[in-house]
Write a structure and sequence with these properties.
This protein is α+β, with helices and mostly antiparallel strands. It has two domains: 83 residues, no CATH class; 138 residues, no CATH class. The chain contains six helices and seven strands. Helix 1 runs antiparallel to helix 2 and helix 2 runs antiparallel to helix 3. The longest helix is centred in the C-terminal third of the chain and has 23 residues. The protein is globular, with a radius of gyration of 19 Å.
Length: 243
């Protein structure tokens, strides 16, 4: 357990639903804090305790996070790998990180895919880079309601998708290819892109794409830590939070 104060967050589905526990958090309303959630007894991983996130944990839960909230807590907490357990926590008034909006979600997906471009076979790297640029342009145009430009970029995106589908999916580049393709779909999909599994798949593909080139378990851990740190720093910029 720790007495050190941490900046903690909670990713939630619409209406305050916790994707993992089917539990509904009571969200703030009328300028008042949300109603606290509370658990009794010893905090034990996977058995008892409210699951919260530090900034560096959030990338592991984005597939369940159309909404990300700041969380306040009191009492003991236990820091675990990729999560923090608490006995009592609540979402404060104005606790939602509104910068995690549709455009941020789409652009974050593209930024993640950009991290694995060097792992793509050289003859296809330029094509994938252009694909990501097309996804970014489409995302920005759609967010600004630029109908004419949106139609133009949509056609460009369709052509780019056809090209990327033609890339041979060899063992050494398949995960990088999947990350780029997932970013394209996420950046251009209709409606909010933050759907369960979408970001989880992108993050998984990015991490696995880098770690598969490791020659030992120790090197794999170092590479995974590095790529996760890069994704976390990108995410923190979009969320306007500090680690």
């Amino acid at each position: 357990m720790t007495n050190r104060h941490l900046n903690l967050f909670k990713p939630l589905l619409d209406d305050g639903i916790d994707y993992f526990h089917d539990h509904k958090w009571i969200l703030p309303s009328n300028g008042q804090n949300g109603i606290p959630c509370e658990t009794q007894g010893e905090l034990v991983l996977n058995e008892n305790g409210l699951h919260l996130c530090r900034a560096e944990d959030l990338i592991y839960y984005l597939y369940a996070a159309p909404h990300i909230f700041r969380v306040e807590y009191e009492g003991d907490i236990v820091v675990c790998p990729q999560r923090v357990l608490a006995s009592k926590a609540w979402i404060p008034a104005k606790g939602e990180l509104n910068s995690w909006d549709e455009i941020s979600q789409r652009l974050f997906a593209c930024d993640c895919a950009s991290l694995v471009l060097d792992n793509i076979q050289e003859e296809y790297r330029f094509l994938c880079a252009n694909l990501i640029k097309a996804s970014i342009a489409y995302a920005i145009a759609s967010s600004l309601d630029m109908a004419a430009n949106e139609n133009y970029f949509e056609q460009h995106l369709i052509q780019a998708r056809e090209k990327v589908e033609s890339i041979p999916k060899h063992e050494e580049n398949v995960l990088s290819w999947q990350a780029v393709r997932a970013a394209l779909i996420t950046a251009a999909m209709e409606g909010s892109p933050a759907r369960p599994n979408k970001f989880g798949f992108i993050a998984y593909s990015v991490v696995q794409s880098d770690t598969q080139r490791a020659e030992s378990e120790e090197e794999s851990h170092v590479i995974e830590t590095d790529i996760c740190n890069k994704m976390t720093n990108i995410l923190c910029n979009y969320l306007n939070i500090q680690r």
